[in-house]
Write a structure and sequence with these properties.
Layout: H1 19-30, H2 35-47, H3 54-82, H4 113-116, H5 143-165, H6 171-196, H7 217-224, E1 230-232, E2 247-248, E3 256-260, H8 285-308
Helix pairs in contact: 1-3, 1-5, 2-3, 2-5, 3-6, 5-6, 6-7
Length: about 325
Amino acid sequence: MFFQVQKLINPIVDDEPDPSAANALQEGLGGQFGEMRTMMQYMFQGFNFRGDAIPYRDLIQAIFVEEISHVELITKTISKLLDGAPEYHGKKFEAPGKGAASMNNAKNEMNPHHFIVGAQCALPVDAAGNPWLGSYVHANGNLVLDLLDNLVLESTGRLQKCRIYQMSENKTLRATVAFLIARDEAHEMAFAKALETLGVDWATLLPIPKFDSSKYPEVKKLIDAGINREQYHFRLDGSTMGQIFNGTAPANDGTELITLDKPQNAYDIPLAPERPEEFAPGLDPELQELADALVVAKDKVIKSSRKSNGVNGKH
């Protein structure tokens, strides 16, 4: 089973809307080597794992759980890049588009589905608008082959994110892509270390692509913090992943691998503003009144529960 925390694994940085950058980033979400695939691939490999080589299963499942947070982060980032792009300034309860076209510019964007289907939000598609496919997932049942497949997946994903980073100077895009470049390198190290325990010698092959990513200032900050050599197991009941993810990194650059129970920092999820031009959430005055009443009632229940349990303040 899984538990949820309403926090992001990396902060969303503010900048101007940029639908073109949002569309490029869709490749990192719903592309063949994007975050949706890594999440689903490691999930199926972990759930279908056979035998008693439990540290390898724990490693795969730990990265699967992290990938859920990556899907969340990149989805929120794409939505942030799209949000407000039509520059609609109408009032909440008035009919949008009753005069001038409220989203006239949306039809000229690279993927108008972001506005027609997604209400200025991310979609489960790649940068060409192709839907994500379950056939992308490789869960072979052979441990060595799965680990090799995962290393190729992380390496290709990192390569593509390095390309996406160069496509825009938008701070919202670059902050998220830089984080994913650093974390993809950590996952390269994880799967490479697992293969190393099975006899592989990487010499100077890693990471892929082989370049100094610290030249990207946003990435350098993360490397200096060490997150490209950390892996989190996200387990409440303990994990054996640390039996694999420890010692010298397979990049053979003198760095060490560190296993932690969870990321050392978490960040607030920005509240997505209402978009009347998209009818999102689309509440008229009567429905809004009912929704507000539900929020008030919920707050009263929470306060009453905390009082009866002797808890004060917000937690």
